[in-house]
Amino acid sequence: TPRIFSGIQPSGGLTLGNYLGALKRFAALQGSGSETIYCIVDLHAITVWQEPDILRQRIREGAAAFMASGVDPRQSILFNQSQVSAHAELAWLFNTVARVGWMYRMTQFKDKAGKNSENASLGLLAYPALMAADILVYQATAVPVGEDQKQHLELTRDIAAKFNHDYKVEHFPLTEPLIEGVATRVMSLRDGSKKMSKSDPSDASRINLTDDADAIAQKIRKARTDAEPLPGSIEGLKDRPEARNLVNIFAALADQTPDQVLARFEGQGFGAFKPALAEVAVEALSPITRKMSEFMDDPAEIDRILGDGANRADELATPILERTKEIMGLLRSR
Ligand code: AQP
């Protein structure tokens, strides 16, 4: 059976971008005849500084967001990465396969390291090797992600191909990215050229999954737009990134195509569109916010679910890691 893996970093409160680009699709992929393995990638989060007590809480919040979005821990394996040591072990092995030059080319590294890249953590540079390990330690065949992760997925395939070539084996699959739908790249509400991100310093740039109805409506009301009326089809929004973003968000939340949305709003301005978008957003997100807070009322239960998921993940990962070590000539005698 096809095996699907994906993860989300607990590096901040989750956003509408994480929901539409990832979480919503994770839930939909369950029971599609694939095995689904979903992970809160805490080892990735610490590539930039995280306050320990806040991180612990965000890992639980991440688990609550997965479940509130419809990921069922009985149908899927749900766990946090640091509880399954095979991820970090395989990442080390991949550090010897991947080339330094590959890592320097990653746009996410350039963005996050900023100008002073000499001072970035070594982990931030090696991030994609750990991501490759997350996926390949399960020999996963497909990874649902947003557009921003495409380059890392290509690097995962490069690592798998180089490993298979160097050791003359067919051990790791060439994993396919699943980048589908109209919201694979949700943009900032303040700047149509930047993706919506949980670590953007401006809270007004994003909708958080913990925002209440008033906050959502206010952020949408203040979202940057232009003064033109809406056209009848998405083609007409080519040079209007902010407008296009809001229409795409509407479409994704309402399970419509952007053209269906525009058919309804053609000729109208944002004075009419924004309140309707706020309504759709509140309707889609408020049940998730409510369920998240219900899950968060019982942190011990979340910890139990993550522990159980980690045990099941460990059972799948350990034999694949062991086989990898054997292939590489690392002596096993116990
Ligand atoms: N704006 C977005 N639109 C669509 N998908 C998105 N994703 C993130 N932002 C958007 C998808 O969410 C999944 C988890 O992302 P991540 O936690 O690994 O971190 P990220 O991609 O780096 O996302 P953020 O929110 O921007 O986090 P920070 O600010 O910490 O870097 C991925 O599938 C991603 O594609």
Structure, described:
Homodimer. InterPro entries: aa-tRNA-synth_I_CS (IPR001412), aa-tRNA-synth_Ic (IPR002305), Rossmann-like_a/b/a_fold (IPR014729), Trp-tRNA-ligase (IPR002306), Trp-tRNA-ligase_bac-type (IPR024109), Trp-tRNA_synthetase (IPR050203). Its main location: cytoplasm. The protein has helices spanning 16-29, 42-45, 52-68, 86-95, 100-104, 107-113, 122-136, 150-166, 213-222, 241-254, 258-265, 270-296, 299-328; strands at 3-8, 35-40, 77-80, 142-144, 176-178. It is globular, with a radius of gyration of 21 Å. It contains 13 helices and five strands. Helix 3 packs across helix 12 (270-296), helix 4 (86-95) packs across helix 7 (122-136) and helix 10 (241-254) crosses helix 11. The protein is 53% helix and 7% strand. With 334 residues, it is mostly helical. The protein has a three-stranded parallel sheet. It has a two-stranded parallel sheet with strand order 4-5. It has two domains: 3-178 and 298-328, 3-Layer(aba) Sandwich (Rossmann fold); 203-294, Tyrosyl-Transfer RNA Synthetase. The model has no long low-confidence stretch (mean pLDDT 96). Adenosine-5'-tetraphosphate (AQP) is lined by residues 8-9, 11-12, 15, 17-18, 20-22, 145-146, 148-149, 184-186, 195-199.
